[in-house]
Description:
Elements: H1 3-8, E1 11-14, H2 20-27, E2 31-34, H3 37-47, H4 53-65, E3 70-71, H5 77-110, H6 112-115, H7 128-136, H8 140-144, H9 148-157, H10 164-175, H11 184-220, H12 225-228, H13 236-246, H14 250-254, H15 257-264, E4 269-273, E5 276-280, H16 287-303, H17 305-316, H18 321-342, H19 348-352, H20 372-383, H21 389-396, H22 400-407
Parallel strand pairs: 1-2
Antiparallel strand pairs: 2-3, 4-5
Helix pairs in contact: 5-11, 5-13, 7-9, 9-10, 11-13, 13-16, 15-18, 16-17, 16-18, 17-18, 21-22
Amino acid sequence: MPLGRRWRATVTGIEDVHILFARSLAASGMKVVHVDPTRAARHRAAFGGSKTDRADARLLAAMTLAGASRPLVVNSPGAEALRVVAHAHRAAVDQRVQALHALRAALMRIWPAAVTAWPASVGGLCSPQARAVLAAAPSPRAAARLDRKSLAALLTAAGRKRTVDDEAERLRMIFSRPVMLLDARVEDAEVIRIGHLRMTLDHAAQRTNTLQRNLEEHYAAHPYHGLVSRVRGIGTTLGAYLLAEIGDRPTERFGSGRSLAAYAGVAPVTWASGQTVRVTFRRASSTHLRSTLHAVAFSMANHSPGARTYYQLRRSAGDAHATALRKLGRKIVLCLYHCMATGTQYDDATAFGYPPTAAGASTLQRQKPLDERQIARAHDMLAIPGTTVTATARAFGVSTQTIYRHVLGRPRAQ
């Protein structure tokens, strides 16, 4: 047999199939199989011996010859591109969070009022308005010199279009309050650090926004985009993360829904010895897919009537919050695999087994922001002369839009 034919007929077993070497071998026509790293580690511990490259090569060769491997199923270039962009987007989000925490910690050293000036409902310090104001006034002395007109101009330049004057007045009142000040030279040094941290946050936010657009483009081109995008509670980001880990050939890659659930880490592991049976959490799994399914289950429990009912059923049975979400994630991934394998569309009523038109069918009950007693108290507060809608909303911990809509019964004033 010629050397070239013998070389291409060789079966190569490898643990990490995503590295360039494995991809190049598969692209050249060689047969590449995947050896489970956890299984290889158990064999290595059972056989003993030193951990060397030569010993690992012999171990992988023995496991490959024994059939302790599975064929390598390569995704299409489009699905692989989505996976690359999804991982880059995850990294960008993590870097944005780290930059935000660093900026918050630096502001707490000299100016704690700036940390709470922008609530989390509008993005906190990561919002464009907060970053624009901090760029012009990174210290309490500089912020105290800003008047309402200057703040309104900064907010308008940052993209705010509604209630600009009210927001500028609110910020001016916060910045004009007496605060503890450091020495001017120390404050100037802190301003230098805050400026660099803010620029880092700007760069991280811009990078995340750019990758978000790229993620949406690759997600829309995925073959299963039409299936996942119709599921309640799965938005663009979660759907892209989900398909990036599953790929576009789930039946060839996993073979069954149970294998996919085990790969996602939502299937338990049962240990049995004699009369002792122990069910534990599966740690040998894809961390990316496991975290994505956790977020998907949490989101669907708030948007899907069937998922909400299933979650409440598991909680009433004694499961903890994380356990109920993990079981819900397993049910979701099994349903999605069935839809991908059979080509059927996802239906919430079919997935969770309830007739949508029957009496007593599962419905998603959304909690009102204010009950009847709180609405009556808000009416009494607004009847007092000098009480504003903003003060009333702050007293109940809701937005001014909620007061306008549920208490006053009219849209918010423009």
